[in-house]
Write a structure and sequence with these properties.
Layout: H1 2-29, H2 38-45, H3 50-92, H4 96-111, E1 115-122, E2 127-134, H5 139-142, E3 145-147, H6 151-159, E4 163-165, H7 178-187, E5 192-199, E6 202-210, H8 219-251, H9 256-281, H10 286-297, E7 300-305, E8 310-314, H11 323-332, E9 336-338, E10 341-348, E11 351-359, H12 366-405, H13 416-425, E12 434-440, H14 446-459, E13 463-467, E14 470-475, H15 480-495, E15 500-507, H16 513-529, E16 536-538, H17 544-549, H18 555-573, H19 577-586, H20 591-598, H21 602-616, H22 623-638
Parallel strand pairs: 15-16
Antiparallel strand pairs: 1-2, 1-6, 2-3, 4-5, 5-6, 7-8, 7-11, 9-10, 10-11, 12-14, 12-15, 13-14
Helix pairs in contact: 1-2, 1-3, 2-3, 3-4, 3-8, 3-9, 3-12, 4-8, 8-9, 9-12, 10-12, 18-22, 19-20, 20-21
Length: 656
Amino acid sequence: MAPVNESTESATGQRAAGALRQLLDLLDRGAPVEDFARPGAQARTGGAGAGEQALVEEATRVALGIRRTLDQHRRREAELTALFDTAGDLAALRDLDAVLRAIVRRARTLLGTDVAYLTLNDPVAGDTFMRVTDGSVSAAFQQLRLGMGEGLGGLVAQTARPYASADYRADDRFRHTSTIDAGVREEGLRGILGVPLRVASRVIGVLYAADRSVRDFAPDAVALLSSLADHAAVAIDGARLLEETRTALVELNSATETARAHSEAVRLATETHDRLTDLVLRGGDVTDVAREVAALLRGGLVVHDAEGAELARVGSDPIGPPDRGVAASRSGGRAVPVDGVWVCAVLAGPELLGSIALTGRADLSDTDRRLFERTGLVTALLLLLRRSVAHAEDRVRGELLSDLLTPESPGRTRDPGSQTIRARKLGVDLARPHSVLVLRGDAALRPRMSAEAARRARALDGLAGPHEGDIVLLVPAGRPGDLARSLAAELGQALGAPVTVGSAGPAGRPGALPAVYAEAVRCLDALHALGHTGHGAALPDLGFVGLLIGDHGDVGGYVHQVLGPVIDYDAQRGTELVHTLRAYYTHGASLSRAKDALHIHVNTVVQRLDRIGRLLGPDWNVPARALELQLALRLHLLAQPGPIDRTTPPTPAGPA
């Protein structure tokens, strides 16, 4: 029988290995999603057992997740590459039409739409006209002119706000005209997204992406198209500046020096844009950009994120988030001076990503002001990239956290080796003892609470993320109760609402983490049940309640925590304070009955109880504390060697 079993096991292992190899080959080829079901089907038809099928199905699920992640990364990479390519085209600034065609073509490619087009405003006629199209087949559509406020594009041009329609033909939010509707119908368009082209606070046109089928445009699509629109506006503005320079050189010979200075300013702006673009492409971060621009503008620079946290500071003292300046810059679309500091909002379309403050420069020339404003665009690209990377990393961290906290089940086995490798790639050392903290607060503040928890976890080389409806931290800490208390206080103050934190641990190995997590949840539930909302604790901090609901109650530690000073006093001086206290409670806190049981004078009982009060504190006999003491006395009696003596032994008549 042994050879048969070995042969069967070998065949099973070969089938599983073959299925896993097929999945790896599919990932390597970038095969379609439907092909990933083939190894599982082959395993079932090949007579694989339930365990083998479960292994193959789990591997298939993981492989599909990896493929989705790779697809998302490729799409993000393509979007950022296109944005950087567009920035390179703007730096050259030789042929405006070629740049605009490239932007429209990239808009169509990145958003995956059937058609993309760009219109420019005609200030003389008071309308907006079609300038560039990509994917259009209708001549009538390519020659459309839209009055201000007419149709979707006319409304964007008039209000300087992005608008989207899943089905424009049936959308009554817009003012329909027969000319516009006829052109849209001939082109066959349904879903349309339009964003404004802005130079400072002035709208010069609209950039569109449209589908010939019904389509809802997600916020990411709006932000991406808005970024491309900003590039297009920079190209048009740059072309205008070059044309003004040429005109000044031809028509105003007397202003040669002024024209030369203007030309030099344009050259410097282009060169600066090249330098910043090159810096980004070489992997520079926000601090590198701030250092470069601070040197160019001969001032100090401070960069904040949207929440007001400082991201970079060069040549300046710390300053608070310039909220008033950010609001003015955001509404006007330009850098603004506030109390001697120039402020520029960092935007991705309408979304506020942060702000830049320039110190040490009371006045800025137009050239320096434009350079400062273009710094906001480069910073926005970096913050968008950083956010994409952070989202991907948080997703990976959350998956690992859930994997570590979820216990084994018949259909799910743990792989400690894989968990250790994944954790090491994230900078987490699972060989260290880890504690678990579970956070619970106002549901409306959950996103901010999650972000604060993630920031704290990264600072402590741990993990954080949502798990089973709560926010969970896994951090290397030996005193989880202290960390829970400080975290509850800090988050409560930061969020302006109570945050309750239950903790447990530390766990000496990853396999113990599910049990530690369950204990932390019980601690959190107990805090709420006891009315301690907004506080943090571990089970030992809850006294006998923690002892009752904990998996492995530390009886000796609890007794010493409650009764330790009295026990130590008896051990050092040979007194009978513990016996006196037990007799006092055993006889209903009656001095006369206690002195009879102890065979001592009532004054001696009073003296001993006074000594106990000095050792335990003045509140030792209040009901809640008395309950803790009586429980500790019973546990202490049970812990003594030999048979339990339920009577109170006689003691000397002298004072304690």
